[in-house]
Write a structure and sequence with these properties.
It is a single chain. The protein is mainly β. 2% of the residues lie in helices and 49% in strands. It contains 2 helices and 45 strands. Strands 33, 34, 36, 41, 42, 43 and 45 form a 7-stranded antiparallel β-sheet that branches. The structure holds beta-D-fructofuranose (FRU). Residues 142-143, 159, 170, 199-200, 223, 259-260, 313-314, 379 line the site of beta-D-fructofuranose.
Length: 594
């Protein structure tokens, strides 16, 4: 036997895989001539096993996988192609175990079910996989990262675990699109190195070659999360497909948790600006640089402002015109977990001025403004270098309260629809962010049906809807208490949206929407200020396999909720409480699946 260990049983698998149980918690796997993938069986309820991959005795990679013990939920592919022809690949596996006998470690069902393959099947197996929202083909996803636009392509990176559908092993997954609707899965762009795993960050296009990596190089800045959180730079000379780690990294090191750097070019001062979440201090630090490598801390904003009930994460800072005025204002985006009024994680923002070094907020510290008032909108940040001055954002459509538990397995988490940001003056004189669906989304529209709703009373009226749809309702709720829009299915499940005309609030209630009991935090009722003078308007609703996003047509409020109905919603019921309402026109578009 090639490995000199005092092994007990030494089963030989498929001729090329040998498994050596060494102790209750330690197993070696020797792969003589690897195919492209080793398929690792996963059991989600198991703790992580740590797998060191050894070539010539050196650790070349470490991953954590919930290796199956008694039951296999799914497999994940460990790509071994880089090690082909480099001698045997050895996996040194440490599993948490209460077993006392090395003999028993060999009982882990994963050893019997290890297989090699040149392919990995990503065909969808999930009832709840969105049809027109971005998702990874398999594995776990959280924050969108590093988004930039260049040469007609929208690049979207994301916090990605390719080795399981729970948070772990953070890398930057990558997808591209030319229309913000159809996404192509690309190879993983940035992987962990000795400084740690790859947390959130962003990318810029260095048009003037300020960093010296070349004109138009794509430069990424992200948090290396190991024993500490430090900021690392990487550059790409193939438009974001692959990145080279900058050896001068870390370029920023803080003594307490700081993460999710977000950089942009500030033309008036001709400097790069970087905003960094000083997570536990609940403030955003602002740095400047001339070359993206050397950064000076200029100021910090946030102490005592807005919600302080959780850690501050994933910042963004941009300028926008205020609709109907000559004014421009700066928006500082601050994702926070927990601490959102909806429960768990959410996206707050501050409106004010920025002089290249310091952000000053227009509002009193106690004012909290939220970009989306649903339960499932987090880590939202914008694309850099977007065309035509657009400020396009995308958010993670989940909530840290239950993201790891939602009833999907092959993949976990989708992103929201892409949205365009604007600013408007609300009836109270405050300046607020507007969110409208990106114009490209109209390309998804298929068959159209127009209903005349007319007068609506408490009995209500029902309209047939397809499973994947966009619904636009022209409503007037002036003469009723609440105008309700309910998505219903054959199983009696209901997802209720309501316009509360007295409070000028938009409400979503998913307490009876389908599966809710996987987490005590899932069943919820959330409320948004409508920022409208009247209770008349247009509501634009997008329904996908496991989500509902409702936009005021002018973007004055938006709410995003996940839903897991056991059968598709097939009807929209519109009814009025405490008075009568009108729903003159109801447009229903069937949306084309990708
Ligand atoms: C936000 C976050 C970030 C961090 C990333 C890690 O959801 O906690 O602060 O960079 O997720 O995956």
């Amino acid at each position: 036997m090639a490995i000199g260990v005092c092994a007990t049983a030494l089963p030989t698998m498929a001729g090329t895989l040998e498994v050596y149980p060494l102790s209750a918690s330690n197993t070696l796997v020797k792969i003589i001539d690897p195919e492209k993938y080793l398929l690792l069986p996963v059991q989600e309820s198991m703790p992580d096993s740590k797998i060191d991959i050894l070539i010539d005795g050196q650790i070349v990679k470490t991953v954590n996988v919930r290796l199956a013990d008694s039951k296999q939920d799914y497999t994940v592919p460990l790509d071994l192609s880089a090690y082909k022809g480099k001698g045997p690949v050895i996996l040194n596996v440490i599993s948490e175990s209460d077993r006392t006998h090395s003999r028993n470690a060999s009982d882990f069902s994963c050893w019997k079910n290890l297989t090699m393959s040149d392919t990995f099947d990503v065909t969808n197996r999930e009832k709840y996989r969105p049809a027109y929202h971005h998702t990874p083909d398999y594995g776990w996803m959280n924050d969108p990262n590093g988004m930039f636009y260049k040469d007609g392509v929208w690049h979207l990176y994301y916090q990605y675990n390719p080795y399981g559908s729970k948070w772990q092993n953070m890398t930057w997954g990558h997808s591209t699109s030319t229309d913000l609707v159809n996404w192509k899965a690309e190879p993983i762009a940035i992987e962990a190195n000795g400084l740690g795993s790859v947390f959130s960050g962003n990318c810029v296009v260095d048009k003037e070659n300020t960093a010296g990596f070349g004109k138009d190089a794509v430069i990424a800045m992200y948090t290396s999360a190991g024993a500490s959180q430090v900021q690392s730079l990487a550059h790409s000379d193939d438009n974001g497909k692959t990145f080279h780690f900058y050896n001068g990294s870390p370029v920023i090191a803080n003594s307490t948790e700081a993460r999710d750097p977000n950089m942009f070019w500030h033309e008036p001062t001709r400097k790069w600006v970087l905003v960094l979440a000083h997570a536990l201090e609940k403030e955003m630090q602002i740095y400047t640089s001339s070359d993206l490598k050397h950064w000076t801390l200029e100021s910090a904003f946030g102490k005592g402002y807005g919600s302080q009930d959780g850690v501050w994460e994933c910042p963004d800072l941009f300028e926008l015109p205020v609709a109907g005025t000559d004014e421009k204002k700066w928006v500082l985006v601050c994702n926070i977990n927990p601490g959102s009024p909806m429960g768990g994680s959410g996206t707050q923002y501050f409106v004010g001025d920025f002089d290249g070094k310091t952000f000053t907020c227009d509002d009193a510290p106690e004012v909290s403004k939220w970009m989306d008032y649903g339960k499932d909108h987090y880590a939202t940040v914008s694309w850099s270098n977007a065309p035509e001055g657009r400020r396009t954002v995308i958010g993670w459509m989940s909530n840290w309260q239950y993201a790891n538990e939602v009833p999907t397995m092959q993949f976990r988490s989708a992103n929201t629809l892409p949205r365009e940001m604007g600013l408007f003056k609300g009836p109270d004189g405050g300046i607020y962010l507007s969110s409208t669906p990106s114009p490209e989304l109209k390309e998804m529209r298929g068959a159209k049906k127009i209903y005349k709703g007319g007068s609506i009373n408490s009995k209500g009226k029902e309209f047939a809807i397809p499973e994947l749809c966009e619904i636009i309702v022209d409503y007037d709720a002036t003469n009723c208490g609440t105008l309700e829009f309910t998505l219903c299915n054959e199983a009696g499940e209901e997802f209720v949206m309501g316009i509360d005309s007295k409070r000028k609030e938009f409400v979503m209630d998913r307490t009876k929407s389908g599966l809710t009991d996987f987490s005590a935090d899932f069943a919820s009722v959330t409320k948004a200020p409508m920022h409208r003078e009247s209770a008349k308007g247009k509501l634009r609703i997008y329904v996908d396999k496991c989500s509902v996003e409702a936009f005021d047509s002018e973007g004055r409020f938006v709410m995003t909720d996940l839903v897991f109905p056991t059968q598709p919603y097939t009807k929209l019921k519109i009814s009025a409480r405490d008075g009568k309402a009108k729903a003159e026109k109801i447009e229903v578009y069937t949306l084309k699946a990708k």
